């Protein structure tokens, strides 16, 4: 498999890690879209949100738990952050290994009404 995020998980591609447990890895995005831009990924390869199976829902919960921890760790939990999952080509997904973007560190524009 030629998945860049799987290679980051296995350690063959370096990353600037901010969080890791048995199931989840989080690291700084190399092309940040906000002052704080962290990618949160499961260590298990799942291509898209559409590929999440019933046995994976606990893993999705682990990702959200990691997001809470990271937001506190980065000092943005109280001021606010955005957690984004892009699914599929039209949803803006570029890397086909499910991942969430945690964006924060400035007032983010509204996505509602656009």
Automatic annotation (TrEMBL):
The keyword Cell division does not apply. It comes from Paenibacillus konkukensis. The keyword Hydrolase applies. Residues 4-113 form the HIT domain. Gene3D superfamilies: HIT-like. It comes from the Bacteria. Keywords: Hydrolase. InterPro entries: Histidine_triad_HIT, HIT-like, HIT-like_sf. GO terms for molecular function: hydrolase activity. This is HIT-like protein. A motif (Histidine triad motif) lies at residues 97-101. Transmembrane segments: none annotated. Its EC number is 3.-.-.-.
